[in-house]
Amino acid sequence: MCAKRKIMFDKTEIVAATVFKDDLGKEIPKILNLSYDQFSKISFLPCEERKLFKTVPSEKIVLKLKKYADPIEYTMMKNKEFYQEYKDGFCRFAADNRIDLVDETSN
User: What does the alpha-carbon distance between residue 62 and residue 22 come to, in Å, rounded to a whole number?
Assistant: First the structure.
């Protein structure tokens, strides 16, 4: 199976593929065009993910947006082919557009 890129970066905006849950818990895929002024904060946080029958340490990218109550998250294991590229892209994007970036990971 070929992995697909879920985040594309431009100078002042990103295009992100994500999934939202409706009131009944049904997942609805969405493509979001997010300009820099829609971001409140970008965080890189440690977390734990299930791998086979055990929980392993991992990390995630958390996007806090002004118009959505729930943050958007991208975990390392679900996005392993592009995760470091996403992380580097968000670092540049945050610096270029003066967005708060919090990195609580050890790397």
Answer: 20
Write the CA distances from 79 to 51, 58, 61, integer angstroms.
14, 11, 10
How big is the chain by its Cα radius of gyration, in Å? 14
- What pLDDT sits at residue 107? 59
Q: CA angle, 86 as apex, 84 and 92 as ends, to 5°?
A: 105
The C-alpha atoms of residue 4 and residue 68 are separated, in whole angstroms, by 24
| CB neighbour list of residue 13: distance below 8 Å, 6 or more residues apart | 33, 34, 35, 36
d(CA 25, CA 2): 28
pTM (global) more than 0.70: yes
C-beta neighbour count of 16 within 10 angstroms: 19
In the chain, the amino acid numbered 89 is: G
